[in-house]
Every structure is written in C-alpha cells, then in structure tokens.
Prior knowledge:
Order of helices and strands of chain B: HHHHHHHHHHHHH
Distance between the termini of chain B: 22 Å
Distance between the termini of chain C: 30 Å
Shape of chain C: globular
Structural class of chain C: mainly alpha
Helix content of chain C: over 70%
Number of strands of chain B: 0
Number of helices of chain C: 12
Largest interface: B-C, 101 and 98 residues
Radius of gyration of chain C: 23 Å
Largest sheet of chain C: 2 strands, antiparallel
Order of helices and strands of chain C: HEEHHHHHHHHHHH
Structural class of chain B: mainly alpha
Oligomer: heterotrimer
Amino acid sequence: MQNKVMSRKLALGVTSSLLIGSTLTVEAWAQDTIRIISHRQPALEYYTSQMEGALEDGRVSVELMPIDKELELASITMSSGSDAIDVLYLNDSSLKRFAANGWLEPLDDLWEKYKEEYKLGDFPQSVVDAVSYDGHIYSMPIMSNAELFFYRSDLLKENGIEPPSTMEEYEQAAEALDSNRMAGTIMSLKPVDAALNEAHWYINAIGDGWFDENWRPIFNNEAGVAAINKMKEMAEHAPRGFTSHANDESTINLQQGLAAMGLQWFTRAAAMDDPTQSRFVGQFEWVAPPSGGARIANDGFAISKFSSADKEEMFKMLAIAASQESMRKGAEYAMPPRLSVLEDPELAEKYRWYPAARQALENGKAFPPIPDFLDVGEIVTRYILQAVIGEMEVHAALNQAAEETEELLASRGYYD
Amino acid sequence: MSMIVTTEKALSKRGQGARKTAPGSSALLNRGQVLLFAALCIFTLFNLIPLLWAVLTSLKHPADAFTIPPTLVFEPTLEYHKEVWLDHNFVQYLSNSLIVSAGTVIISVPIGSLAAYALSRIPRQRSGPILSALFTIRMFPHILLAIPFFVMGSFLNLIDSYVLLILALIAINQPFTIWLMHGFFSDIPRDLDEAAALDGCNSWQSFRTVILPLARPGMTVAALFSLLLSYNEFLFALVLTGVDTKTLPVAIASFGGEDISSLSLAAAGAIGIMLPIVIIMLLLQRHLVRGLTMGAVKG
Amino acid sequence: MVRWQRGLWWFLLPSFGLLTVVLLWPLGYALYLSFFDYYLGSSDRTFIGLGNYVELFTEARLWQSFWTTIIIAFGSVGLQFVVGFALALGIYKLKFSARLFTMLLFLPHIVTPVVAALFIKWILVSNFGLLDATLLGLDITPPDWLGDPIWAKISVILADAWIFTPLIMMVLYAALQTLDQSLIGAAQIDGANAWQILRHIIIPALIPAIIFTVSVRLMDAFRFFDTIYVLTGGGPGTATETITMYTYQLGFRMLDIGKASALGVITLVVVAIILLTINKVLTRIYRRGD
C-alpha cells in the first residue's frame, strides 16, 4: 500500500513538473517565433512555405486551417489585444473588417521604404486598393482569385452548344445538358460563404448589385428579384444536394462527371487536369463567367497590430514571399497579382485556364468594400436560400433581408 | 461488510459468465440465441460501415473515392497515411493530445471523486440543489465560453501552453465526473464510514482507506469518459493552443480545405486519431463494463 | 452532523474552487455581457439592459430555431434511447460474445465528433456518398439526404444517433447487469410474458439509469453543433438551423457577443426547465413502478 501511494505521488509530481517545464520552455521559445495562421489551400501552402524559407529555420511557424476556423481564432485573439498571432491571411472582406476594427498594422511606411527593393510598384492600383482600407495599405497581396466558368468541352461540342456568354445562354445550356445522370450545372449553396459567392454573381449579372452609393440595399429591387428568381430556376438543373455543397463538393461533381459546368474558383482549375482526382483530364475548358459580375478577390497577408515581433522583418518576409520570382512559381496554384507575372505569355501556354482568368478579372466584381459585408452576407444568404428552396417567396425574402441589412448598417453608423 | 458480500456476488456472477462463454456449451445455442446473434451481427456490421468506408477512403486516391457505383476494387495507397504522420507532424500532435488528456484525467477524476464523495455523504436536501446546479452549468454553450477562456489565457500569458487547456477541460468535465462518481459513492453503504469513524478515522482517513478502494472500478469509468472528452475536444483546443501545443482534433480540422486531395488526407488523419483511443479502450474494456456494472448510474 | 461527516466540506474545495475560477467566472461574464450591446470589433460597449433579450424574443427566428432544436434533439435522443435500449437488452440476453459486441458497438462513440460527422457525410453526400452512390448504381434515385428539408433533419438525427447510441447502450447494459435475476425468475413462474417482464420489472429497475442517460443526452443534443455544421451548415434554407447554429452565427460570425450571450442564457434556462420536467415525470413513473 505504502509503495503504491509513493509511486502515485511520484507520478503526479513528475507529470506536474513536466507540465510546468513544458510551459516554460514554450514561452521562452515563443518570443522570437513568428506565428502565421492561414487558410489551407494549395496556393497558400506554397506561399506560406516561401515565408518559412525567407527567414532562418524555425523562426517561422505556420498553421493552416479552414478559413472559418482561422477567422474565429483571429477574431478572438485580436479582440482581446493578444499578441498570440503575428501574421494572418485575410481575404478582401475580412481584411476590411479587421482593419476597421483596428486590429491590423498599417503598412504604408514600410511599403514606401521597400517599394524599390521589392518592386512593389508592380502591383496594379486595383490590387493595392483591394488590400487597403480607409487610405492605408494593410496587407501584402499574395493572390488574385476569380470565379471562372468551368465547362466540359466534349459535352458542349457533342450537343452543338457554344460556351455561354450570357445568363440566358447559360440557362439554355444547363437545360440541354441536364439529364438523369448528369446535372446541368453545379451550384454551391451551402451556407454561408459558398452560397454568398454564388448569389453575388446573380445579383451582379442580373440584378443591379448589392448597394447604391449610400450603402442602402438595392438587391431587393425588381432586377434583384429577377436575379434570385433565375437562381431558383437554375437550381432545377443543379445536382441533388446542392444546398449542402460547398466548393469541395462542386469540384468533385465536375471531376466525376456528375455535372456539366458551372461557376467555380480559379484555384480549382488545376484539379480538373489532375488524374489522381479527375476522371475527365483535358476535357474541361474555361471562360469568364457569363454576363460577368462573378466574384473576384485579392487576398493577402496582414500583420497584427498587437504582434510583438519585429514588424519590419515580417514585412520583408512577406515581400520575399510575394516577390516576382516566388510568384512565377506560385502561378501554378493561383493568379499572381503582379502585372509582370500575370501578363507573361508563358503562363497561358503552361496553364490553359489563364486566358479565361484574365478575362474574368476584367468582368468580375469584388465584394462591396465595406468592413461589414460579411455580416450582411450572413443575413442575406439566409433569406436568399430560403427563397431558392421555396421556404419563402422571393420578393418577401429579399425585402426582409434588405430591412435587416439596413438595420445592421444603421447600427454600425453607415447613415449618420 | 455488506460491500464485501456484494463484491463476492459480483465475482461469482462473473465466474458464471466465464463459464457461459466456455466452448463446448452447445446446449445454449438454441434457436433464439442464434437469431439474436445474427441480428446483432447484422446491426453491428451496418453500424460499422461508416468507419470501414472511411478506412477505405483513406487508402484511395480521390478519383477512386467518389465514384458511382462505389469502387471496392482499387489499388490501395498508403501515401496519405504516410503524409499525415510524417509530413504533417502528427506525432507531435499525438503527444500533445496525450499530455493534455493525461493531465485532465489525472486531476479531474480525483478532485471530482472527492467532491462526489462529499456530496453523497451530506443530506440530500443540500446535495440535490448542488447537483442540479452542476448540471445546469454543463448546459451552457461552449461557444460562449471560448472567448472568456481566451481572455483569461492571454491575461495570464498561458496561451499555447498545456496548463489552461487542461484546466478548462477539467472544469467542463467536472459536472459529468461528479455525477457519475456520486452514483458510485451513493451505492457504498454509510455503515462503512461509520465503522471507520468508530475505529477513530477522520473523514479523510476513512475515505482514503475504506471508500476509495471500493470505488476504483467507478473511477476507471470516469477516467475513460474524461479521456474521451479531453482527447476529442475541439473548440477550446483550437482557441487555447498554438504551434507547440496543438492537439490532434485541431490538426485534423486543418485538412478541411480547398483542395479535395485533402479529403483523403482527412480520412487518413481521422483513422490515425482513432487508433490510440481504440487501443486504450481495448485495454480498459473489461474494467469499463465491470465499473459501470458496480452501480455507476443507480442515481 | 455526525463526527465522521465533519470536514466533508473540504472535499468539495478543489473541485468547486476550480469550477468557480474556470467556469463560473466565464459564465458570469457572459451573463454580464448579455446586458450590453457589444460588437467584438469595437472596444466600447453600451449597457442596454434587457435589450438583447427583448430583441431575441420578438424575432421569429428564435422561435423557429427553438422548434428545430426541439425536433432534432427529441428525435435523436428518442431514437438513441430506443435503439440503445434494444441493443443493451439484446447483448444482455445473448449468452456468448457479449463483450465482443459491446466493444464493436461502442466504436462509433470514440470517434472525434467532428470526424464522425465527416464519416456520415461520406455516406450520405449526394452522388458520391457510399449510400447514395450504391443506390444510384442499382438504378434507384435516392432522396436528397442533406438537401431536402425533411431528409436533412432525419440525416442529422441519424448522424447524432450513430455517435451517441453506444453511450446509452453501454450505460443501460451495465445497469442491466445489476438486475435482480430472482425477480425475473419469479415473474416467469407466475406466467408473465417477455413484454410484461420488461414493462413491470426491467424498466422500473432501470429508471435511474434511464434518467441519467436521457438527461445527459438531451443536454448535449440541445447544444450539438459539429454534426450539423459539417453536414448541412444549417440548410437547406433554415431546415436544420438549431439554436446553437444561431448562437454560433451571432457570436463567431457576426461578432455580436452581447446578443449571443443573451441567447446562451436563454438556452440555458429553457433546457433547464425541460430537463427538470422530464426528470420529474420519469421519477414519478419510477415511484409508481416501485
């Protein structure tokens, strides 16, 4: 008995000292490590590994996770002013939200200082605007992304259909290709992010957009109702289960020949030609989304205002990852925002989807540049989905959404 | 005294059980038993399909994983398992998970047992409300606890350390542990305490020398459920850990990404995360059923 | 209080001390925040009294998500209970291999919940999920498991039941082991049939275990989240939008911490009332059964 007690006490002691010991070492070590958190996808895996390579071994630690988890973690961390995160990936809408909340370090001075050295002038103004808020630059542009229109060229040819350039043609094509075994088009309507992207296209292509110039909602006007009605019609040609489909499911539907075409991100294009994933390698082609107005996004990496690491060093690390040389390789995974790389004719030869992508950049549209658009999206998406699946009448749903949107924006001081 | 009798009864019951399962007792294999056995087999098989399918998925390339009709014949690949364990640092995450789970279990079960014992020995009208209050605490959405936990962690500079995560897990684990152990202790007759008191033991001594040994099977059960909870917890682990202390569930979640080849990775990771706990379960299984049998939940 | 009972309060100290510091503090903090208009993005918050509560109670969405939660929670706990009880009885009656079955049937419960939801998704997801693809391969057009409002609810219930039936089974199986065999024997001699034995002897004896499992499971079912988040994200439309999904959206997506906290408090109160009622009813049945 005595022995047993002794050994148990010993075990407890050892465990607790282990615990304390490990905390201490972790803290000592954490001081000069730069912690980066990011969404996981191939392009970002590539660019974060470039960041790791930019500084000596072990200085940079990268954590990749789905964007919803990343934003949750970042919001909790930064709202409490913690320095636990140094650098983070942000897309256009979340960048504006984080910047407006005062959670990000403005990069203007460093940008000026290193403009020459890292050829930052190579980024077009539109990209710089996309990573700015209220006149300050807040993140290092890493990739441009655009929704493209994916289609199976073999099927279209067989049926004598031209790749659609308007919503009407898109609907006709979807109707023609819709069969028992194959859906006419993919639609990604899982709440919230996927569905918001899809709705964004319809609201811009058929409707008049989300807001007027005073940030009053206009998506519930006649054109907006027509847009969502069209969405509802198109849903008849979507694969079963489309309301729970996000990008992954839609991609698989295309790769497995379960859907003939549809809207999907640029970053998914390469996967169509990957034989370990796709059953129709070489059969896919791309055009800019019919009628335009599909989402484009410029994403980058920002530095936390609360970071206790050396901000200049972190800026340089980001700039190296976003250098011309790095982006030339990164072009395989995502559109490089640098003009000199993007317009390189070699790219189009190497990657078949680049011409369509450049066009999509021209005719696409970013989310409205307000910090609260993600919140608006939460509200609106919910009603649009209710309308699309018939839980609510379209016009009533949109009116309700507009009303709540206006309420929200009013409470955030938009109309003062 | 009565406890010893009970234990003996339990033992003799187990003895019978052992005899029942002995080979050669074919007289027991009547028709009802065979039907029951068949029904359970079929149900078990169906019940395990999602698991088996996940195992298959982890051995496939995505092109084979999502087909109509499902592909059963394919060239298996261990690539994704290899990638998960070797390239994605799963070994480190596993050791983090084990440290966190062990820390939780080692602290949670003893202090929960202490409290449960006390509650089982004080008048019901006083323990009743406390137990209900514990239950109520358990119902608060975890989402809303995550933010205060983080605030506390960053205030104490304990983010990315094991300590706070373990404390948080112990805390959310306490209500269940106390309830479970309360059931066990209530089953142990008070005569034993009184006898010990007559022998001059104070309450600590009688707990330590008389009651605790009898409650050991119950503690095994409590330990197992604490282990399951702490090993699988995701939200607090996400918020409170960092590079060095990240646990397996958080690591797994990082594969739900943009690239569908990560579905195969996710499957491989998911199978990987299960294995350690399956092994622990296998080792504990005997104690588990016995522990529950001893009256865990007799209220 | 007798002598040996003295000092028992000290036993509560470590556990309750920790609970106070680690759990009650955040709970109190959340309660406090529920009286504020607090957007996580801005550092200032305004006291608005019961404003959040009034706002929540007047919107249709709260009630709708409550109903959805109740349907899903009771559906899944009911299913789990029936199946779990049947399994426990089956294994109890089985005279061999019982340990093997408890082991195999318990397996789904040890899978990390997020992962378990993913496993179910790979079975149900349209076109390439195992079940869906198999049916399609047989030329049967399956229902839209995750996309039809009714089927989505059923799927979510099935998924939750898959994960938690083993827990109920295990606890009830263990409780069955403590059953007094002589009572059953006596009843059999009296000519009671299997149903009567179940109804009048087995179930009354199991009531404490039943209360325990049903309460614990209902509590968890009311805040279960991962499964729905992974399977349907609350869709189609709002068909599977539970109260926790709503809390998540308010707190984590829209960073409206004040309102989210108020919703948390409301949930707590409602679930507490439901549980107390159920406990009372079951206890009454128990007393009568005695």
